[in-house]
Specification:
By secondary structure, this protein is mostly helical. It is built from five helices and no strands. It has two domains: 65 residues; 63 residues, no CATH class. The N and C termini lie far apart (86 Å).
Length: 162
């Protein structure tokens, strides 16, 4: 056709990802939901009258999965942002902080493991203010000791090597 712009779309152009960031987020939510369903699969579900320990985790996992599917659908319906470049600094330092906490909580205790993990995790940002980070980590660790050891009476070592 001359002078017109009525081109027929090709056969494979029906499903086009218009929002790659939304697609990645939706897939992530579905994967998290599937992991939660698998992790809680051995918990008793119970009934609506007598709910078991698995009712809430399973219900939340199903809701997260539905939300993930909804986000995936929006990736095909509406235009969205590109994935862009994924910096590794943040996730690596946050994961490292969790690992440091897990490895030091029993050997050093909460009084040292808490601030150590939070200070290590602060390396995830290049905009960190060290004075505030140290004050925050000490105050938050004090609040954790008060909550978990004093108020809840959990057997968490505060200072393990003494």
């Amino acid at each position: 056709m001359v002078g017109g712009s009525s081109e027929k779309p090709s056969a494979g152009a029906g499903l086009r990802v218009r929002g790659p960031l939304e697609l990645a987020a939706g897939v992530f939510l579905v994967v998290v939901a599937l992991i939660a369903l698998w992790a809680g699969s051995d918990l008793p579900l119970g009934t609506m009258r007598s709910m078991g320990a698995g009712m809430l985790p399973r219900s939340l996992a199903v809701l997260v999965a539905f939300a993930g599917v909804a986000v995936i659908v929006t990736a095909f319906v509406t235009d969205g942002a590109d994935l862009g470049k994924w910096p590794l600094r943040g996730p690596l330092f946050i994961l490292g902080a969790v690992l440091i906490f897990a490895l030091t909580i029993r050997t050093l205790g909460l009084a040292f493991a808490g601030p150590l993990a939070m200070i290590f995790g602060s390396f995830a940002s290049d905009e960190v203010r060290w004075k505030e980070t140290i004050i925050f980590s000490v105050c938050l660790t004090g609040a954790c000791i008060l909550l978990f050891k004093v108020l809840l009476g959990l057997p968490i070592p505060v200072i393990a090597f003494i």
